[in-house]
Design goal:
The protein has a two-stranded antiparallel sheet. It has a two-stranded antiparallel sheet with strand order 3-4. The chain contains four helices and four strands, in the order H-E-E-E-E-H-H-H. The chain has one domain. Helix 2 packs parallel to helix 4. Helices cover 54% and strands 10% of the residues. The chain is mainly alpha-helical.
Length: 169
């Protein structure tokens, strides 16, 4: 019974728990590139900047930085909470693709539940403000890939099984 449940639902539950319980790190104010921007920022005339020229970027809990690692190239690689959720989702997609190679009655139930899960993700993405993020969009695309790949792999495996069964009789 537990094998027929789409495992990607774990990522969706994780996303919703984080989105509705973890507080966002706060908004970021972005200064626009001004015309005639001086090379030396100490010479910047701040009288040109007013509230109308500032952009405010809203941040989500998925923008929280978990850790940062200095690379050999002197660049800094940063892993955010959203990145971690996407990695977990991709691992669960791998499990789903392995499950899709099974043939039998439970695979039909698994595909039906995966389809329902995709539809629910699409509805949540369109209607719930906390789901209107790139992280949830990627999770929704993974559920779509799960549906399409699951049906495709199962059909291919069933044809293979049918071909072997017919040849031996």
């Amino acid at each position: 019974m537990i094998l027929t449940i789409p495992w990607v639902i774990v990522a969706i539950i994780l996303y919703n728990v984080i989105a509705f319980t973890v507080s966002a790190p706060g908004d970021v104010v972005v200064f626009p590139v001004l015309e005639n921007m001086p090379q030396d920022l100490s010479q910047l005339d701040l009288s040109q900047v007013n509230a109308a020229t500032l952009d405010i970027i809203s941040r989500t809990p998925f923008d929280l930085q978990l850790f940062s690692i200095g690379m050999i190239s002197d660049a800094s690689w940063t892993l955010t909470l959203g990145d971690l959720v996407i990695v977990i989702t991709l691992i669960l997609l791998f499990v789903e693709l392995i499950k899709a190679t099974r043939t039998g009655g439970s695979s039909i139930v698994d595909h039906a539940l995966s389809t329902i899960l995709f539809v629910l993700c699409l509805v949540e993405f369109l209607l719930v403000p906390e789901a209107a993020t790139s992280v949830f969009f990627f999770i929704m695309i993974v559920t779509l890939i799960d549906v399409v790949a699951g049906f495709s792999i199962t059909i291919r495996a069933a044809r293979r099984d049918f071909g072997f069964g017919g040849a031996s009789g």
